[in-house]
Amino acid sequence: MINFVLAIGVRRTMRTGQLLALVAIFAEARIALNPSWNQQWPWIVTTLIAALVLSELVRVGRRLSMPPLVWIGHAVRFTTLGWAGTGLLALFVLKFFGTSLDDGVAQGVFWSSGVVALLPSFYAFSIGRDRIVVRRYKVGLTTDRPDLRITALSDFHLGEYVSAAHIRKAVNLSNNESPDIVLLLGDFVDQDGLKGPELIRELTNLSAKLGVFAVLGNHDVDCTDMQTLVGAFESDPHVSLVRNSSVDLDVVVNDSTKTLRIIGFESHRFWWSPGFLDVAQRVLTTADELPGADYTIAASHHPEVFDLVGNHRFDLMVAGHTHGGQLASPVFGRVLNAGRLVSKYVRGLYRSGSTILIMTTGIGVGVIPARLGVPAEVTLIEIAFGTSDSDSGTPAA
Fold it and tell me: Which residues face 314 on adjacent strands?
């Protein structure tokens, strides 16, 4: 399924999913409203056609550069996808209570299922999209005093759906945690590299005792005027851009100095291609030739690098890209998650041998300007040097 989505693209997958959802709603209505189908079918058909037409506002809005139209189109698409699910639940309710032959009850249950689908859609495209939490992880920590505090921020996507004010809120949340290091994991802009200076005006306010380090994501290397974006980073003395290279830092732990190594992987324009992993492998081979470090962290926009990193001398890897899926079920959200369509690493903590991967859900939104069950997050990682046998992660408001 992942290969299929990558082959045809997320937008086409969503479009195909909506068309299938409309067919499913029609079939569910035909079953649920069987006694009164002759009277109800014009309303059903009209509603579905209206949903199909309104969903095309996504394309119209993009062509006319009118974000509100795009927002409405996406909301309609998301609602129809949800209605296919709630309509199925309506059939179970009617079957369970034995009221499928009662016209009034059948009509009320089925049309109410559409309203039930509309409510989470409204939340996802408004409150859910703007909410940011702090999610905490402890790695190798057996006491209340970590040796190192890291905040990770990813997937800002400054542009059509994400404002500088939203990024400013994330910066303030990171600063409130007083981190030693901040890792910025790419996709800083959505499409327009000319927004680089506007972005840096926010990111330069990040506070970290040992520094702020950034890697580029696929949206960054494929944006218009990439050089303007890169130049904005290179001109800022507070943010260090790590491009397929490493940085060594001295960290004082219990009156002794430890060496912390951060290796940053830069995304490829065609990040799903074998060429991207070939470059990552060369970076890892070069890193193997460096003198040993007390603790090594890999920073990558794409989690697929973890398949390679786990075979090398790394304690921790931090990545983004999936946005945690953006849309997930409130129950079993790690399994029933849209992110599973694009990656086997979606959100949370994974392990390969002694190496731990922590996936942050990101700050902004991507193809769909909505979040449900997966809030944006500033990820706080508290580390104890010398061990990675104990780990946990808990969200905080």
Answer: none
CA dist., res. 294 & res. 296, Å (int): 7
Q: What is the pLDDT of residues 292-340, one digit of tens each?
A: 899 999 999 999 999 999 888 899 999 999 999 999 987 767 778 888 8
Shared domain for 242 and 366, answered yes or no, is: yes
**45 and 151 fall within a common domain:** no
Residue 192's DSSP bridge partners are 224
CATH at residue 359: 3.60.21.10
- How distant, in Å, are the alpha carbons of 168, 213, 216, 291 from that of 206? 9, 11, 17, 30
Nearest residue to 69 via CA among 77, 80, 61:
61
Instruction: Verify that 65 and 157 share a domain, yes or no.
Output: no
Rounded Cα distance between 397 and 389, Å, is: 27
State which residues form the domain around 18: 2-124
The residue type of 394 is: T
Task: Kindly report the pTM of this predicted structure.
Answer: 0.89
